[in-house]
Design goal:
With 187 residues, the chain is an alpha+beta fold. The protein is built from six helices and ten strands; from the N terminus they run ααββαββαββαβββαβ. It has a five-stranded mixed beta sheet with strand order 2-1-10-5-6. 30% of the residues are buried.
Length: 187
């Protein structure tokens, strides 16, 4: 074998090794890809206070036989977000605080196309999961600095950022603003 052939062969082998190394790295990256919810999939603690929300259906992280149960503190521990917006039912801009629905669904590993929201009075409405993925929909537990009570649309009210998105001011969206929310079922 001549020196030129040997050098060419050496470069081809190195190139081949580099390509295999790159492919192996990509394969390893694909194997270790973990969905966002699984990265936080530590066990969900049991509620210590009164349960104000249950999440059932297609969820991976649970703390009851039927799904995930949350007390007020557990929801707050997911991270509190503030939203100032008008509503179809109250005059003027209201200040809401609560957890983003998207954050809650990530925490329990929810996957599905539709979420059925149920209120204490058994009002139910189907909400596309896309709403929670595309908008900062809040599960509000406070309004204007006050903890929301059952007598005032609490303990949880689904609140859309309607002032930031004109398409959220349509009537069909207003029907998704469930107050006195008690349960979410992911399908």
């Amino acid at each position: 074998m001549s020196l030129i052939n040997w050098t060419s062969d050496l470069h081809a082998r190195r190139a081949g090794i580099r390509h295999w190394a790159i492919l192996a790295g990509l394969g390893a990256a694909l194997l270790v890809h973990v969905p966002a919810w699984a990265q936080t999939a530590e066990p969900l603690a049991a509620p210590t206070g009164p349960v104000i929300l249950t999440v059932t259906g297609n969820v991976e992280v649970t703390n009851t036989d039927g799904g995930a149960a949350f007390d007020r503190q557990m929801l707050q521990d997911l991270g509190v977000t503030e939203l100032n917006t008008t509503t179809p039912w109250l005059d003027g801009v209201q200040a809401f605080k609560g957890v983003l629905a998207k954050t809650l669904f990530e925490r329990v590993g929810a996957e599905g196309e539709t979420v059925t929201a149920t209120a204490l009075n058994d009002y139910t409405v189907a909400i596309p999961m896309d709403d929670f993925q595309n908008y900062e929909v809040l599960l509000a537990t406070e309004m204007n600095g006050e903890e929301m009570r059952v007598s005032d649309k609490g303990p949880i009210w689904i609140v859309y950022p309607r002032d930031d998105h004109p398409e959220l001011q349509e009537r069909r969206i207003s029907e998704r603003w469930v107050w006195q929310l008690k349960a979410l079922e992911v399908q």
